[in-house]
Write a structure and sequence with these properties.
Helix content of chain B: 25-40%
Largest sheet of chain A: 5 strands, antiparallel
Number of domains of chain B: 2
CATH class of chain A: Mainly Beta
Shape of chain B: globular
Radius of gyration of chain A: 16 Å
Distance between the termini of chain B: 19 Å
Number of helices of chain A: 1
Number of helices of chain B: 13
Radius of gyration of chain B: 19 Å
Oligomer: heterodimer
Order of helices and strands of chain A: HEEEEEEEE
Number of domains of chain A: 1
């Protein structure tokens, strides 16, 4: 963004997510009222609307739920939904791999890349 | 209370342009408004309800109402992308049923090919809350829909050849439409041999990108009956939003699973009663999933259902998108819901091209999906009958 002023997306309650990501850790939100996890993280649980949500560190493992490769891009890149053992499926990308060998059900592990100066979780073949 | 028979579509117009060089977005809105009102036999002074989505240049309906010289007493600028027009049809019918307005005008215009004020084309002034968590992965309309196809193939054994049949049917219809961008009839082999653009979708699994627009006029029953056009009335509507639900992702179904049953229940008809269906066709997979979700076949059996020409008028059980649809005709402003309604009205009036006109077409459905099938989208289902 050309404008580097405060973003409407900035929220102090999300700062622990970004701090953890900077250290290579991916956090989800866990709701102590309904017991469910959610992602992307929100202060109020989208499943039960309780504000009793807390951070949960993921194991950094996942399984490809679905994927595609944008072939017209130069270079082509992957996009994927990855299901985590913590019970959520997140939008991400599979990197450092042969894009012709991606498959649903493939085991992947967490890594990080950078986007707009912020850490972004991605996955590599396990 | 039901919407059944409380509002009629009295006028329709589809802009003939597919590449609007030198034509402003506002002028396209005005030309389609004029066309639809003239088709109905009404004047713009009769309009007391105005509906326009995010393709309107300006703040909601304000600037376009001024440009068109309208003084509406009922307005709605709900925006769910390409399905906005199904939602507007539903809301217009509701407003008319409640007496809030009697002549509702709904317009669409878009210029994705020639540029010049394509709203929603760039970054929005306020980014959505999912943005920091999704933007890094460069999701496009194409690759997000492709992930739905990938998962559908994995769970149900759907094949590229089955998806290709949807394009074959659309192209078979488009050959009769002189305005269609792609008029050559294609084969399954040509579709699956076209380049893969986002696995598993091929170039010919995609819709066209076109400029253009369309409009319809919905009116109260007493007004419809005073006009000289065939009587087409709304009998059921349904709407829904489907999203990724906090990470509980299931890409195998669309919002049609929710909006369809609401519309069918209100209309008091079932999927097998429908004579003609306009089904949103941004991609072949979009059609396949909506056909399943609307109940035209069992979930997972869409591939078999669409094969062997079953969507082709005259031979198939479910004639669809007889104008060539978004896959071959046009997709004005990347918003295909309007043209879905227009072709359904033509079919009910008996005004479709004779080569694709469904015999005794007295019950039709027009369904839209707007946004992204792979993340969040709005679904709208409209069921109409010839009175």
């Amino acid at each position: 963004m050309a404008d580097k002023g405060p973003s409407v997306l900035d929220d102090v309650l999300l700062q622990p997510y970004w701090d953890a990501a900077t250290k290579g850790k991916l956090l989800l939100k866990h709701c102590t009222a309904c017991g469910k996890n959610h992602y992307y993280p929100r202060p109020i649980c989208p499943h039960c609307f309780s504000d009793k949500t807390e951070w949960l560190e993921t194991k950094g493992e996942g399984t490809i739920y679905s994927w595609s490769v944008e072939r017209r891009a130069n270079p082509p890149y992957s996009i994927a939904y990855v299901t985590l053992p913590e019970g959520v499926t997140i939008l991400s990308s599979i990197v450092d791999c042969d894009l012709n060998k991606l498959a649903i059900g493939q085991k992947v592990k967490l890594g990080f890349t950078e986007h707009d100066g912020k850490p972004a979780p991605v996955f590599r073949p396990a | 209370m039901t919407i059944k028979g409380k509002a009629y579509i009295a006028g329709i117009y589809e802009h003939p342009t597919r590449k609007a060089d030198g034509i402003s977005l506002a002028r396209i809105h005005a030309e389609v408004a004029k066309g639809a009102l003239e088709d109905a036999g009404l004047s713009h002074k009769d309009v007391d309800g105005y509906f326009v989505a995010g393709d309107s240049p300006g703040l909601g309906p304000l600037n376009m109402a001024e440009y068109l010289g309208l003084k509406p007493k009922h307005i709605d600028s709900t925006d769910t992308g390409g399905s906005s027009y199904q939602i507007h049809a539903a809301h217009a019918a509701e407003a008319i049923a409640l007496g809030k307005c009697k002549v509702a005008l709904v317009t669409l215009a878009g210029k994705p090919r020639t540029g010049g004020g394509q709203p929603g084309g760039g970054r929005r002034p306020v980014d959505p809350p999912d943005y920091p968590f999704e933007a890094p992965y460069k999701g496009t309309v194409l690759n997000l829909y492709a992930m739905c196809a990938q998962r559908h193939m994995h769970e149900f054994g759907t094949t590229s050849e089955q998806l290709a049949w949807i394009k074959v049917a659309a192209s078979t219809h488009a050959q009769h439409n002189p305005h269609a961008m792609l008029r050559d009839v294609v084969t399954v082999e040509e579709v699956v041999n076209s380049p893969v653009v986002a696995d598993p979708l091929h170039r010919l699994d995609c819709c066209v990108i076109s400029d253009g627009g369309g409009a319809f006029v919905m009116v109260a029953p007493e007004i419809a009956k005073s006009l000289k056009r065939p009587l087409v009335r709304v009998i059921g509507t349904g709407e829904a939003i489907k999203h990724v639900n906090g990470g509980q992702v299931d890409l195998t179904y669309s919002g049609a699973r929710a909006s369809g049953p609401i519309a069918f229940a209100e209309a008091g008809v079932k999927p097998s009663d429908i004579k003609y269906a306009s089904i949103y066709d941004s991609f072949t997979i979009t059609v396949l999933m909506q056909i399943e979700d609307l109940g035209f076949c069992e979930k997972g059996k869409g591939g078999a259902f669409v094969s062997d020409g079953n969507l082709i008028a005259g031979t198939g059980k479910l004639p669809f998108n007889t104008d060539g649809g978004g896959l071959c005709n046009n997709h004005p402003g990347n918003r295909g819901g309007m043209t879905k309604i227009l072709e359904a009205v033509r079919q009910l009036r008996g005004e479709a091209h004779p080569a694709v006109q469904v015999k005794n077409c007295d019950l039709a459905l027009a369904h839209g999906t707007g946004g992204s099938l792979g993340t969040r989208h709005g679904s709208g289902t409209i069921i109409m009958e010839r009175a």
